[in-house]
Design goal:
mainly alpha; 2 helices; 0% strand; transmembrane helix
């Protein structure tokens, strides 16, 4: 009798198991679906993180490129300033040379004026000499004769 009871119990359990089996399969399927969804979400998160990292790298590269461009611009500006200073120095040197040339010309002009003044003074002395020579001789004939004598004797 116990055996029959056990068999009946076993039958009931098998029946219950048969009834619960689709339910268990459905639950297992739901669990697998949930796991799949979780994996998909994790993959999406990883993809998003990778995209963010890529964006960050791109931004860093852009900042480095801008800094390099700025440095190049600064270098060009420095080169331009150096060229302008060199040009200014050359202009000052040219101006100094022109000033020196002008000073030299002025000195030459002063020398020429001094020479002219000396010539004029010499001419004046000669005129004074002739004047005194004519003044202290007696007649015009004697004056001319003395003048020619003086000129040819010298």
């Amino acid at each position: 009798m116990l055996l029959i009871l056990l068999l009946l119990l076993l039958q009931q359990l098998l029946l219950l198991l048969l009834l619960l089996l689709p339910l268990l399969l459905l639950l297992l399927l739901l669990l697998l679906l949930l796991l799949l969804l979780l994996l998909l979400l994790l993959l999406l998160l990883l993809l998003l993180l990778l995209l963010l990292l890529l964006l960050l790298l791109l931004l860093l590269l852009l900042i480095l490129l801008l800094l390099l461009l700025l440095l190049l611009l600064l270098l060009l500006l420095l080169l331009l300033i150096l060229l302008l200073l060199l040009l200014l120095l050359l202009l000052l040197l040219l101006l100094l040379l022109l000033l020196l040339l002008l000073l030299l010309l002025l000195l030459l002009l002063l020398l020429l004026l001094l020479l002219l003044l000396l010539l004029l003074l010499l001419l004046l002395l000669l005129l004074l000499l002739f004047y005194y020579m004519f003044l202290f001789t007696k007649t015009w004939e004697e004056r001319y004769k003395n003048m020619f004598k003086e000129c040819f004797s010298a």
